[in-house]
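quick one, two chains, predict together pls
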Amino acid sequence: MNDASSGRTETSVPAGGPGAAPVPTKIVRLRHPWRIAFAVVILAIVAVVVIDAAQRPAFDWPTVGKYLFDQRISQAAGYTLLLTVLSMVIGVVLGIILAVMRQSENPVLKGVAWVWLWIFRGTPVYVQLVFWGLLATIYTSIDLGVPFMEPWVSFPTTALLNTFWLAVIGLALNESAYMAEIVRAGLLSVDSGQSEAATALGMGWGTTMRRVVLPQAMRVIIPPTGNEVISMLKTTSLVSAIPFTLELYMRQRDIAAAIFAPVPLLIVASIWYLAITSVLMVGQYFLEKRFARGVGDRPDTGPGPVTGAMSTDGLEQVDPEAGLAARHGGDAR
Amino acid sequence: MSEQTTTPAGDDESVAVSQTPMVLAEHVSKSFGSNEVLKDISLEVRRGEVLCLVGPSGSGKSTFLRCINHLEQVSSGRLSVDGSVVGYREVGDKLYEMHPKDAAKQRRDIGMVFQRFNLFPHMTALENVMEAPTQVKGVSRSKAKARAHELLARVGLAERADYYPAHLSGGQQQRVAIARALAMDPKLMLFDEPTSALDPELVGEVLDVMKELAKTGMTMIVVTHEMGFAREVADTLVFMDGGVVVETGDPREVLANPQHARTQAFLSKVL
């Protein structure tokens, strides 16, 4: 170990300048030899695994390369992404509605939201998806009209909802229950003085929510929502329960079954999942940055930025910590 | 000093209107569960009057203030602002609870300033002041903006219009909050310990704005611990303790010569 040689040169070297004052001039940072040691060990392990994997026939890298950009796979990745985005958009909108319903003073709205959450959060998403898949069997037609009377119009369920839309509905409704709780946490994080001030100004409940509470809640809502998006991306692999089979997981399984090569196709799918997740993470970073705007706890020193400049200038420097601090501030209340 | 006590309602308005008190509380009580916070409060605030509510914490002064713009509901008694009962519609001898929309309408004319400012942190000072007129009254943005600039200048913050609250000092934030309340052209202003959350050296700037406001003839109810302000600006001082009004009178007299033992005890600690 090179322990002995490190960190001991604390003694001050005489100042190089004309003054002979005993001012310490050289700062020697604390060294961390163990970090380097661990890094070396880990690198070694990684190298062994990689070299081994590259040579192991079961991974069949040529097949991975062949199917990585296969049109069927990239199309399936497209479906996966579309399922994720559509389900999340619907889930977020429903989640906001449910959260607001739970916060309202109306006991009926509150009760409805509570039961919704109870059902969709209390049963496995896989079970729910199987149920959605059986929708056409349970309800063979969708009728519009007065209950117990001859319907005005009647559609066969299968014509109205194909497996793709059943998958979207199944995922979105399940997600809405989780989003409702995330949004509710966001609403609760906003200081009650805010809605009080809005009320005192004569704003109604709706205006207060829309203009005052929700914009502030966004900073608390976004990070866990990013989490949900990534989680949703992976949950889409369960829609085979419907069964919807054009998304990434089922598609690679079909191909793998046809060519008797399960492992390389799984690697292909994993690479695509990882790639999409990485892109989504970048998106989340920028979204968080945007909503941390204008609210950072910055000391009121110095000339503050002016109007439009606020958005671009000042926050570049404060940003990541400002967002964090703001979030903590929100929690503290 | 003497000018500010003249009521703005003055001569040109009809006698009937000028005689209606701005705030009239008759036997008002308020309980939170079994805890009775206000006990049989009766008092009257005339138009243009500046009334200071003082008393130890927990005496019910803030609760009374919050009842006036219906942030809290009174449990019994009758509380009216400018002749109409707060939060209820009076038909015959019955009071019908108002729909929240109507209650919101009633609050438009009552400005309120909070101890913790409660500015909207995601809006600039200017946007804070513009928010209620545009969203509640439907004033056009350009008009609201011009008026907001005017009000910010009035509280001495013309140059800070584009700052976010986080970048303003406590005193500046509270002055913006006053401008925000004034933007709705209230007939009554309520101040809930407006200087209690401020650093001592920032108290003066807020009190100065309030003094200016008092001079314009605004009807003001101020919950405060600033006895100097009460002595100088208030027309009436009300001392509350334990949910009851203990003593009411001219601030100079009450402060110099309190009649009740409880008032004496409180003032001896505060002054």
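The CA atoms of residues 8 and 143 of chain B lie 26 Å apart.
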